[in-house]
Amino acid sequence: MNIIDHHKQIIRTEQLAQRRANKQSEYDIANKQIVQNLSKILINNNFTILGLYLPMNGEPDIFKNFVKTGKIITLPKIIANNIIFVEYQSGDLLEQSSFAELKQPQSTQRIIPEIIVMPGLAFSVKGDRLGFGYGYYDKYLYKMRKFCQPTVIGVCFHENLKLFLPNNQYDQKMNYIVTDQIILKI
Fold first, then answer.
1. What CATH number does the domain containing 122 carry?
2. Tens place of pLDDT for every residue, the chain, 186 residues?
3. Listed residue (62, 56, 102) closest to 78, CA to CA
4. The domain containing residue 126 runs over which residues?
5. Structural domains of the chain, count
6. The whole model's pTM is what?
7. If you ran DSSP here, which 8-state letter would residue 71 be given?
8. What's the CA gap between 179 and 31, in Å, rounded?
9. Whole-angstrom Cα distance, residue 127 to residue 101?
10. Which has the closest alpha carbon to 161: 18, 29, 42, 32?
């Protein structure tokens, strides 16, 4: 393991411990504010296809607030160690993914979102994202950005926003970071 990966792993461990220590009442208040801040960005963008995520491990829960926007909603699906986005309609059955407790749609019909909202264990004010370390989102964004430019919005609780995160050439930057306290355009 190189020094950057080692530093990332230390931060992951700290962020997961911090999430476990959060109180539900504080989570609910901060989550509500994240939803309000994210709404401000989405209202000001003209788009048809929105990429969301189903929350796990204490991530902000924005899904239920945006699934009924009148837009085409997509969710990530892990296939052969890669993410694709597939359409989700309210009530669609979900299946267990190969990653942790993540649920995903059964569909395999790929759709490319114009706006992608993604969680992270931490984000930096420069637009860097720290995930669980598998690189699913980074690989997806790297491929997509070769032929289209989706707007990518990272969401986290403000305590998970850092001045600096270690990164390498494979890490993809966000266009926005949304927390319960700020909206940061990168």
1. 3.40.50.10420
2. 789 889 899 999 999 898 888 899 999 999 999 999 999 999 888 899 999 999 988 899 999 999 888 899 999 999 888 899 999 988 888 888 877 678 899 988 899 999 999 999 999 999 999 998 888 999 999 999 999 999 999 999 999 999 999 998 889 999 999 999 999 999
3. 102
4. 3-185
5. 1
6. 0.94
7. S
8. 9
9. 27
10. 18
